[in-house]
Write a structure and sequence with these properties.
With about 260 residues, the chain is an alpha+beta fold. It contains seven helices and four strands. A four-stranded antiparallel sheet has the order 1-4-3-2, covered by helices on one side. The longest helix is centred in the middle third of the chain and has 76 residues. The radius of gyration is 38 Å and the shape is rod-shaped.
Amino acid sequence: MNIRDFLDVRKLQELQDNFSDATGLAAVLLDSKGEKVTKESNFTDFCMKYTQGSEEGSHRCTKCQNENSGVYYCHAGLMAFSIDIMLGSEKVGKVIGGQVLPRKADEEQFRRIASELGVDQDSYINAVKKVPVSSEKNIRAAAELFGQMVNMFVNLEYSHNSNGGKLGQLQDEINHATNVIQKINTNTSSLKSIANKQKMLSLNASIEAARSGEAGVGFAVVAKSMGELSSQSATIYGDIEKSVIEVTDSIEKLASLFENS
């Protein structure tokens, strides 16, 4: 399942940006293939340049993201998170981020890391000093809360998208049923008009049969049967009209519910 097929990325980006602004944690959403769905929020130069920019850094960050879940310490000593996005039992993506120090940077530690990565130590230290600092408790709570928020948002978007399609199909069927009923109504009116004409013909035939005396007796019987048949037809057509009116009223009420939803 491709998360982009049903997700409003603009709304999610706004949610992600607000989360990062409020907590200082970096964040980005990836699809099930590991490709970015949103733009990175609050990633510092330290993360982008020194842990993702170089071939070695990129490899190590990817390894951290793939081997860890939840909230963890990354190879550079920062706290990070990787939380799966689930639709039922299917994983459709994940949110990763964090890139926050749980305590003030230990300069000597980061000089050793810079040396291991083969990057300029002073530039590396200047970059790490710009990384936000927060307590481990706050980092864990914020990351877990964001994971829950994103999962809720994605599931709601999927539900809305799926139900919206079904409602659209139902609306189409309602419109089709309304058109069929209109045709039935038109045809019933035509048949009712024919029944009235049959009744008039039966009456005229009865009059002519009476004028013919004994010679018109057989014709009078046919005329009488025709009159009874036309009366029965008129009654049936009247009942059909009443049923059509009731069904039409029900469909109109049902359609109005979807129009107002």
